[in-house]
From TrEMBL:
<feature type="site" description="Interacts with tRNA">
    <location>
        <position position="91"/>
    </location>
</feature>
<dbReference type="GO" id="GO:0010181">
    <property type="term" value="F:FMN binding"/>
</dbReference>
<keyword id="KW-0820">tRNA-binding</keyword>
<keyword id="KW-0521">NADP</keyword>
<dbReference type="InterPro" id="IPR018517">
    <property type="entry name" value="tRNA_hU_synthase_CS"/>
</dbReference>
<feature type="binding site">
    <location>
        <begin position="227"/>
        <end position="228"/>
    </location>
    <ligand>
        <name>FMN</name>
    </ligand>
</feature>
<keyword id="KW-0694">RNA-binding</keyword>
<keyword id="KW-0560">Oxidoreductase</keyword>
<feature type="site" description="Interacts with tRNA">
    <location>
        <position position="180"/>
    </location>
</feature>
<dbReference type="GO" id="GO:0050660">
    <property type="term" value="F:flavin adenine dinucleotide binding"/>
</dbReference>
<feature type="site" description="Interacts with tRNA; defines subfamily-specific binding signature">
    <location>
        <position position="177"/>
    </location>
</feature>
<comment type="function">
    <text>Catalyzes the synthesis of 5,6-dihydrouridine (D), a modified base found in the D-loop of most tRNAs, via the reduction of the C5-C6 double bond in target uridines. Specifically modifies U20 and U20a in tRNAs.</text>
</comment>
<feature type="binding site">
    <location>
        <position position="64"/>
    </location>
    <ligand>
        <name>FMN</name>
    </ligand>
</feature>
<feature type="binding site">
    <location>
        <position position="165"/>
    </location>
    <ligand>
        <name>FMN</name>
    </ligand>
</feature>
<dbReference type="InterPro" id="IPR013785">
    <property type="entry name" value="Aldolase_TIM"/>
</dbReference>
<dbReference type="InterPro" id="IPR004653">
    <property type="entry name" value="DusA"/>
</dbReference>
<feature type="binding site">
    <location>
        <begin position="205"/>
        <end position="207"/>
    </location>
    <ligand>
        <name>FMN</name>
    </ligand>
</feature>
Amino acid sequence: MSSYPYKTSVAPMLDWTDRHCRYFHRLLSPQTLLYTEMVTTGAILFGQQDFLAYNEAEHPVALQLGGSDPEAMARCAALAQQRGYDEVNINVGCPSDRVQNGSFGACLMAQPETVAECVAAMKQVTDIPVTVKTRLGIDEQDSDEFLYRFLDAVVAAGVDQLTLHARKAWLSGLSPKQNREIPPLQYDRVYRAKQRYPSVPMSINGGITTLTEVYHHLTYVESVMIGREAYQNPWLLTELATIDEASTIPSHREAVAVQMIDYIDQHIRGGGRAWHVVRHMLGLFQGQPGGKKWRQYLSIKGPKADDARALIEGALAFRESRETKLADLTS
């Protein structure tokens, strides 16, 4: 198979994979590629805040762009390279009404020439990889022929890597959440696409939850992208790190929690709230004894907390306690 430096990645997830989430995830897996939430070209070029901000510790990190104007996409790609991003990715997968109204996301599968023009324009102004994340089809247009018409165009434009979410998207009638669950997974179609484009690195995404599944997919494609499972059960990232043969992998969840204290305090000193960070840590003890108590403590105390050490150490102690009850947190 063609070379690609990242065997695993965490999917871009709106409202979830912000810079605080990515910092936390990086502590768990040193080499897994992390994606930003989708950021629109309009937000980057005309927004009042810095939508490209990230922590240097997040590398390798990819910016996912939402847009369909080649000139704007190229400007944002150039900015991404200037800011040090390792990759810039085009969103052709999001099916939400808001995204469709902005003429980007999954609806762009019906406009392969437009996406190809974006790829070409972005590659003209950058040296970092320009990649595309897409579905297998949209609405009734979900044949291999339809998919290959889209992929042929972006491959011809010089796309550096493709990520295929192994489902089609319904542009009307289903919510974004339903679009992640109802359309059936078709991994075999991703495998066939890889055979058609052997020289283009390919990643598979959709419904993947275990290390065993990851290893299975890696026999067909270069890389595997994990979505919701990586967020809800973040300790899975330490297992993904073994695939990348990372030299430093945390062995204790408690140590990772304590490592986050300085970062949370720094965010508070900068005018932020502890909850902006700790909300991403609720799943750290998923499936472990006391995991529910950890979530309860952070959910109740986190929104008003202004002392990171007291919050994290309190949550760890509450998790370990045998007699303490939830009522004690609210009394």
